[in-house]
Amino acid sequence: MLVNQDDGCLFTASSDGSVKIWRRVYGDGLHALIMVLRFQPSPVNCLALCRSSNSCFLYSGSSDGYVNIWEKEAVSGRFNHAGFLQGHRFAVLCLAAAADRVVLSGSEDTTIRVWKREIGSAFHTCLAVMEGHRGPVRCMAASVEMEVEGIGLLIYSASLDRMVKVWRVKVMEKEEEEEHKDEEEGEGEKEAEFEMNPVLSPSWVRRQKSRGY
Length: 213
Prior knowledge:
Keywords: Repeat, WD repeat. This protein is mainly beta and 213 residues long. It is built from three helices and 16 strands. It has helices at 174-179, 181-184, 202-210; strands spanning 2-3, 10-13, 18-25, 30-38, 44-51, 56-62, 66-72, 79-86, 92-98, 102-107, 112-117, 124-130, 137-146, 151-159, 164-171, 192-196. A four-stranded antiparallel sheet has the order 1-2-3-4, with no helix packed on it. Strand 2 and strand 3 (18-25) form a beta hairpin.
């Protein structure tokens, strides 16, 4: 579940394939069901919300490997299905929103995918597939590290392999991509760069403590 800090709405995901939106009834502490979103029957495992000054997108990750996209109408406030993200081979177990146009998806297939939405559109591009875990990626957290050149992200991912990995991802903006276009010819365009820091596994932490770090 998650809460929209702008309007206080509560979003809940369900194994029946639906996403329910609740609004608090001020004065009596109750919540009213105001909307039910459903596109596929597959169980919904996770949710993420990307907000900006002029847009709001809801993402729902399902057991069928898809991430469904819901766009909020500015006038009515309703969420309409705007498409889906396809790439994972197995269930999507966790989602994390970063900045206002980047969303991350972690899967049972042990990978993390970085998606970026185009300005003024619901179209997304998969910028990178991050591999390193040996088990399903169960949860993630992300924060913006710097925005001087592109978008810099610091990502933490936890897996059933009992490891927490730290990733630094740089998402390049189109202006910067054009500047590097000539350099990247013959090697394919690089829209995102990432590196993995030391693994925060129990054994790694014990080794660092034994060394006095």
